[in-house]
Structure formats: C-alpha cells, structure tokens
Amino acid sequence: MDIKTIKELIKNGESVNVELKLSFSDEVIISLVAMANHRGGVVIVGVSDDRKIKGIDLNRESVRRWASEIRSKTQPFLSVEIEK
C-alpha cells in the first residue's frame, strides 16, 4: 500500500475496515481476527484514535515478533502482511 493511500485511510478515520492503533498489542490481534471474520481490512499502528500520527520504532526483528505473536495467538493462525 502506498503512503498516499495510508494517509487517506488515516484522514478518513476508523471504519469497519480500518483500525488505528497507537501501538502493537492484543487489541491489534483482536481487530485482525474481527476483520478476517468479516471482509478484511487494515490496522495501522502508530496512529492515535484522533488520527494523529505518533509513529513507532519498527525494525526487521519487531516485524518478525509481531507476525509470530499473531500466529501464536490465533487459531487457525492468521497469515498477515506487515508493511513498514
């Protein structure tokens, strides 16, 4: 997904298909499961509920850790695409 699309999603705020989360947590995983059970969607981490971009520290290891945590906490496991 390109940066223009991401900014547009943030500008439009949360919806059935878009969740904004300040940090990675179990809430992110719950949102992913809900979206997987519906029609799919996008969770954007590093953005507050009031659509302010706060950012996060993200590196290769944290992406691996997030993917591993998502897989270990979902059954059947979710295979997600994590973009930086």
Spell out the key features of this protein:
globular; 3 helices; mainly alpha; two-stranded parallel sheet; 84 residues
Description:
40% of the residues lie in helices and 10% in strands. The longest helix has 13 residues. Strands 1-2 form a two-stranded parallel ribbon. The N and C termini lie close together (10 Å). It has 3 helices and 2 strands; from the N terminus they run αβαβα. With 84 residues, the chain is mostly helical.
How many helices does DSSP assign?
3
Largest sheet: 2 strands, parallel
**Class by SSE composition:** mainly alpha
Indicate the proportion of strand residues. Answer: 5-15%
Nutshell version of this structure?
The chain is built from three helices and two strands, in the order αβαβα.
Lay out the secondary structure:
Blueprint: H1 3-12, E1 18-21, H2 26-36, E2 42-45, H3 60-72
Parallel strand pairs: 1-2
